[in-house]
Amino acid sequence: MNTTTTTPSAEPLSEQLAYLKLPFMLEHHAPLAGEAAQAHWDHVAYLARLAAGEAALRRERSVQRRIHQARFPVIKTLEQFQWSWPKAINRLQVQNLFRLQFVADQHNVIILGTVGLGKTHLATALGYAACLKGHSVRFATAVEVINTLAAAQRGGRLKQGLDSYRKPALLILDELGYLPIDKTGADLLFQIISQRYEHGATVITSNRVYKHWAEIFNNDATLTSALLDRLLHHAETIVIEGQSYRMKDRIES
């Protein structure tokens, strides 16, 4: 009996790879097959190269998706930080945070200092590093959060609004204390901090030291005390001292 061996055509394979949404394999299976023939790879080595490429592409797309969802105003990295400008900063303490153990531990980081010292830069860099390591991140200014939640509350969608800030592994609240917060805003921020307590990591930047935080929250000492109690239970404080880097040229002239 004669048996005939047929070679599957590439067209059905391409259709199947497209259907399975395997873009790297779809684009590279043919050229890699030629490379495999020349290099005498076996079928397992050929498949491993295709699978590795597909996995790498998915990881990169996942990182880019997390970065997009984080809503950073601009991408910053630790390598870009101007260590020489602040008058005082604990460099080793900051660098240790980029191990991101505080995210895994669901602890908090509060970065304190006057304007122009790089608080937002460091907070954004932490968020970016977290995205690269597979963590979900959300960045927002304190005022943006309050306005978004107030609108959600008026529209009967407060739970959904709170969830968008409660669920990320890392929440970055920038510029807390730069503008006054009324009672409604203070209550909304308290709900976020309370719901994230021991459930997610939070990074906060502020130009106010803790003893003045009651002034931020409508001089509500009770609410401020309750908020700080939850926020600082598992927290690390970074203090940056000096003059604004944005005023550098004027100061040095």
TrEMBL record:
Keywords: ATP-binding, Nucleotide-binding. It comes from the Bacteria. Belongs to the IS21/IS1162 putative ATP-binding protein family. It holds the Pfam family IstB_IS21. One of its GO terms (biological process) is DNA replication. GO terms for molecular function: ATP binding. This is IstB domain protein ATP-binding protein. Residues 105-239 form the AAA+ ATPase domain.
